[in-house]
Design goal:
The protein is of the alpha/beta class. The chain folds into 2 domains: about 200 residues, Glycogen Phosphorylase B (Rossmann fold); about 160 residues, Rossmann fold (3-Layer(aba) Sandwich), CATH 3.40.50. The chain has an 8-stranded mixed sheet, sandwiched between helices. The chain has a 6-stranded parallel sheet with strand order 11-10-9-12-13-14, sandwiched between helices. The longest helix is centred in the first third of the chain and has 21 residues. It is globular and about 60 Å long. It comes from Thermococcus gammatolerans (strain DSM 15229 / JCM 11827 / EJ3). GO terms for molecular function: glycosyltransferase activity.
C-alpha cells in the first residue's frame, strides 16, 4: 500500500469541528494513509479551543462570530474567514500536498490556495449547496442566488483534481449526486463516492429495552419544520407513540414552540447535542428512526447519515418517497417510505412495526468500504 508519510493536507470547514462526523472519519482515514492532517475550522460560536489535537487530527479554529441560519451574516463574514485561513495555510505550507474543501462554501478558497501553492484541490461535496438553501427555506424552486451557486458548484467540480461526493445510483429509479455532476459535464472518472456510513466502533450492537410506547427518534440537525407536521398529527391521535429529538439546529426552537402551541398532548422528549461517541445510546431508545425532509432536489439524491446509522444498529427507518433513500430501503428491506401527508405517515408507522433490517447490512454499509476509495483519491 502506498503511503504519504508526512505530507500535509489542510481540510477547510465552516463549522467549529466538534467534531463534524464525516470530516472526522475522512481525516482519520487520511492519517492512516500517512498524511499529516489539519482541519482549518471556522468557530462561529467563538467558544472552542483555538488549537487542539483530536485523535491525531490537528484542529486550528478561526474564531469569527456569525449567526447560524442567517445567510446574509454568513456571507458577510465568510471573506474574513477566507483571509485568516489563507494566512494560516501559507504560513504552514511546507510539505503541503492537498487542500480539501468541505462543501461549496470552502471550494473557492481551496481552489485559490491550490493554485497559489501548486498543490492538489480536492472538492468534497457533502450536500448540493444550492439545494441546502432550499431545505432551510423549505421551497422547491430555485431563486437567482441558488442558480448562481449551482453554476459555481459545477465550475469548481470541473476545476478540482478530484471530487468526492456522497451518493450514486443504486440501480433503482433514482440517481445520486455523482450522476447529477456527471450530467452537467464533470468528468466521471474523477468523481468518487464516499458513503455517509458509520464507523462500527462508535455504533456497537446493544440489546434494546422495549418501552411501553413505540418511540420514533430523529437524531441530527433540525433544519426544517414542515417535514415533522405529519408525524405530529399522527402522534396527536395515537397516544401509543413517543417522539424523541436528539440534536440542535436552526429550527429546534420553532419545533418546540409548535409542539407546545398546537400539539400539547404529544409525548415528546428533547435531548441537546451529544458527543459523537455517545450518539449510539440514543438509537437504542428508538423503535424506528425518522429520516424525512422537505422534498428538495438534494433530498431526492441523498442517503442520510442517520439512515445508515439506524440500519447498522438494527433499527428500521422512515424515509421520503420518490428518493434514492426509498430505493435503498426497498432494496435492502430495512425501512418504509412515506410522503408528507398524515394518512401516508400513519400507514408508514403501521408498517414499520414489522420491519427489521437484515444483520448483513452492518457488514456491508459501514465506514470500512470507504477506506479504499479515499486511498484512490489521494494516492493514485
Amino acid at each position: 500500500m502506498m503511503v504519504m508519510d508526512g505530507k500535509k493536507v489542510f481540510m477547510l470547514l465552516t463549522n467549529p469541528f466538534k467534531p463534524d462526523p464525516r470530516v472526522y472519519k475522512e481525516a482519520k482515514t487520511l492519517i492512516e494513509l500517512g498524511f499529516d492532517v489539519t482541519v482549518v475550522a471556522w468557530d462561529r460560536e467563538r467558544n472552542h479551543k483555538l488549537f487542539e489535537i483530536v485523535e491525531g487530527v490537528r484542529v486550528c479554529r478561526i474564531p469569527i462570530a456569525s449567526k447560524y441560519a442567517s445567510f446574509f451574516d454568513f456571507f458577510i463574514k465568510l471573506p474574513l474567514f477566507y483571509l485568516k485561513a489563507v494566512l494560516y495555510v501559507v504560513k504552514n505550507k511546507d510539505g503541503l500536498y492537498a487542500i480539501h474543501a468541505n462543501d461549496f462554501d470552502t471550494a473557492p478558497l481551496a481552489f485559490f490556495l491550490s493554485r497559489l501553492l501548486g498543490v492538489k484541490f480536492i472538492y468534497d461535496i457533502h450536500d448540493l449547496y444550492h439545494s441546502r438553501i432550499s431545505l432551510l427555506r423549505e421551497k422547491k424552486t430555485l431563486n437567482f442566488l441558488q442558480r448562481l451557486i449551482l453554476s459555481l458548484e459545477i465550475i469548481h467540480a470541473k476545476l478540482a483534481d478530484s471530487v468526492i461526493t456522497v451518493t450514486r445510483s443504486l440501480g433503482g429509479r433514482h440517481k445520486g449526486v455523482k450522476e447529477f455532476l456527471v450530467n452537467r459535464g464533470v468528468v466521471p472518472d474523477k468523481v468518487y463516492v464516499v458513503w455517509n456510513t458509520p464507523e462500527l466502533e462508535f455504533f456497537p450492537l446493544i440489546k434494546r429495552e422495549r418501552g411501553e410506547k413505540f418511540t420514533v427518534g430523529y437524531i441530527g440537525t433540525i433544519r426544517s419544520v414542515s417535514s415533522f407536521i405529519p408525524l405530529f398529527e399522527v402522534a396527536r391521535r395515537d397516544r401509543r407513540l413517543k417522539l424523541l429529538f436528539v440534536g440542535s439546529g436552526a429550527s429546534k426552537g420553532k419545533i418546540a414552540n409548535l409542539l407546545t402551541e398546537r400539539y400539547p398532548n404529544v409525548d415528546v422528549e428533547f435531548i441537546d447535542e451529544v458527543p459523537y461517541h455517545n450518539v449510539f445510546k440514543y438509537y437504542t431508545l428508538c423503535d424506528a428512526v425518522y429520516s424525512m425532509y422537505p422534498p428538495t432536489d438534494n433530498i431526492k439524491r441523498a442517503l442520510a447519515v442517520k439512515m445508515f446509522e439506524s440500519i447498522v444498529m438494527g433499527i428500521p427507518v422512515i424515509v421520503n418517497r420518490d428518493t434514492l433513500m426509498e430505493d435503498f430501503v426497498v432494496l435492502y428491506r430495512c425501512g418504509v417510505s412515506s410522503n408528507l401527508s398524515t394518512e401516508d405517515m400513519a400507514n408508514a408507522l403501521e408498517k414499520i412495526i414489522k420491519v427489521k433490517p437484515p444483520s448483513r447490512l452492518r457488514d456491508k454499509w459501514n465506514w470500512d468500504r470507504n477506506r479504499s476509495t479515499l486511498r484512490r483519491v489521494y494516492c493514485e
